[in-house]
Amino acid sequence: MSVDLSSMLELLAGGGGVDAALERLAGDGDPRLAQVASLMRQQRAQADSQLALEAGGGDDDALARDLHRAQADLEAAQGELQAALGELDALRLRNRRLAYALGACECFGERPDCEVCAGEGGSGAYRINTRLFRTLVAPALEQVRGPGGPKVPEKEEKP
Ligand SMILES: [Zn+2]
If you measure from the C-alpha of residue 122 to the centroid of ligand 1, how many angstroms do you get, rounded to a whole number? Predict the structure, then answer.
């Protein structure tokens, strides 16, 4: 499963959907995302309980200020979440391109619970994508081989 950015943004833009968005983020299977979702939940819970505490003995103006501040905090958190999701999307795309260039699963064989490779999808496990290999790997390979070393063929040679 992976986070669908556009549906996340729809949830957030719809208002009141932050819980659903965090739920989806936490359920993505990526432990880092689960951590981000957990931190954001904690921040929201703290803001809520702070608000409840102050509401008990405060006047209406103080309550309105707190509510306004909590809303601003929430909007800032939503902005941060959207930025993080945008960055995550870009990183996923880069990871996918590199994995395909190396003939690896997108998890690089690091996740025994991977639905695609069950942890067996390291570099070279699958047929490499030659176009991506030439773009992403060949320049590094040619640097390792040194000047005058064999070049990676421009086009795939037919047998
Ligand atoms: Zn995998």
Answer: 8
